[in-house]
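Is this the right way to post structure tokens for a design question? Let me know if I should format differently. Anyway, here goes:
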């Protein structure tokens, strides 16, 4: 028998929201271009070009605060829809473990070692990849200036799996979100009220705990990403909250632009690893939170109004996003390591790195679509999960 979750009182407003699919697709497209540009940007990254370009700071700094926040919010929305389709919380957790933990384990065994090998090779390591995998990858500590173990880009998958478990625990307690929705719905509260605790916690942690990835260390990241995931989850079950999203969208765009200008200004005046004064850093972190939240609201409103429509490529692209996320980062690192020594023009090198990475993602998707066990390892969902009928509005 189907057990309905009790955290949400209202029925889901949509069956499948095509706009959320398009947001995921667009967010990944931005992400892969962003990571390719990191090779040439002034900030530190895994593989760096011999020359970096400050002109990349404004566009990349404008994207940085909200690109991952948006993915967590969209993931929360999808989690609610998947929970509704599951035969209870236990079935939901089994499904999410299958979709997240299996690819995470696969990536940690096969994809991350290749990235880590390239990193230590750049620092002078002479061993082959098989030797590195068997002898040095499974260490705990430092090798050639590189810390082990490392999630690399798979930290997002690890966070999402952990957040899903916490969210399922909240649902299991029978807690409801009706009061929160009622509190946020009037006037412009949805825009400004969540910013109070988000900014407060961010600044309270800023000079107390280090800003570093890790399930047990990234408290500043958790304080931002988990609430956004919960927001997406609640939004998927409350039609009334969508009205509030549309109501605040114009002001959210203004907030996002103003906050983005602050972030760009700080990054421009304190480029690369330069440390701004504490006051400037606090303003920068607050602006990042404002931009993450307001851009999420603005983009959700845009997707709901303009993108909630199907296309013959939508299903394929939506299905390919997660496998491409797993593969793209490793492909970028290896491609950059391969192409940079050739002395190509920077634009040609950028395009070659990007094209090679996209090519690997396409090949991985095609192979996973045809080989069942490989598709499971790289996180491909069953086709039937992408073809559910949508409920009418």
């Amino acid at each position: 028998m189907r057990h309905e979750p009790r955290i949400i009182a209202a029925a889901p407003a949509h069956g499948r929201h095509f706009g959320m699919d398009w947001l995921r697709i667009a967010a990944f497209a931005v992400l892969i271009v962003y990571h390719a540009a990191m090779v040439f940007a002034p900030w530190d990254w895994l593989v760096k070009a011999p020359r970096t370009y400050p002109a990349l700071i404004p566009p990349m700094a404008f994207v940085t605060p909200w690109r991952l926040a948006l993915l967590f919010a969209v993931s929360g929305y999808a989690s609610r829809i998947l929970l509704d389709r599951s035969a209870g919380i236990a079935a939901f957790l089994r499904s999410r473990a299958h979709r997240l933990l299996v690819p995470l384990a696969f990536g940690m065994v096969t994809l991350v070692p290749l990235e880590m090998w390239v990193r230590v090779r750049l620092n002078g390591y002479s061993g082959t990849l098989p030797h590195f995998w068997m002898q040095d990858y499974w260490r705990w500590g430092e090798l050639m200036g590189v810390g082990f173990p490392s999630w690399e880009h798979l930290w997002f998958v690890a966070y999402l799996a952990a957040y899903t478990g916490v969210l399922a625990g909240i649902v299991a307690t029978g807690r409801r979100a009706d009061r929160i929705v009622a509190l946020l719905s009037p006037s412009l509260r949805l825009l400004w009220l969540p910013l109070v605790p988000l900014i407060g916690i961010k600044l309270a942690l800023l000079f107390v705990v280090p800003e570093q990835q890790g399930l047990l260390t990234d408290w500043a990241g958790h304080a931002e990403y988990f609430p956004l995931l919960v927001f997406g989850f609640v939004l998927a079950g409350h039609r009334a909250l969508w009205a509030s999203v549309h109501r605040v969208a114009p002001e959210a765009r203004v907030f996002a632009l103003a906050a983005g200008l602050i972030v760009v200004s700080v990054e421009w005046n304190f480029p690369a690893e330069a440390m701004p004064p504490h006051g400037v850093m606090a303003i920068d972190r607050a602006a990042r939170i404002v931009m993450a939240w307001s851009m999420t609201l603005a983009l959700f409103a845009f997707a709901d109004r303009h993108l909630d429509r199907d296309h013959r490529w939508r299903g394929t692209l939506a299905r390919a996003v997660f496998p491409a996320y797993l593969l793209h980062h490793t492909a970028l690192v290896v491609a950059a390591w391969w192409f940079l020594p050739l002395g190509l023009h920077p634009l040609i090198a950028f395009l070659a790195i990007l094209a090679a990475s996209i090519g690997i993602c396409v090949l991985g998707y095609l192979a996973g679509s045809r080989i069942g066990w490989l598709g499971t390892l790289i996180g491909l969902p069953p086709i039937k999960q992408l073809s559910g009928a949508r409920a009418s509005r």
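Format looks fine. Someone answered above. Worth noting: Residues 18-386 form one domain. Residues 93 and 165 are 7 Å apart (CA to CA).
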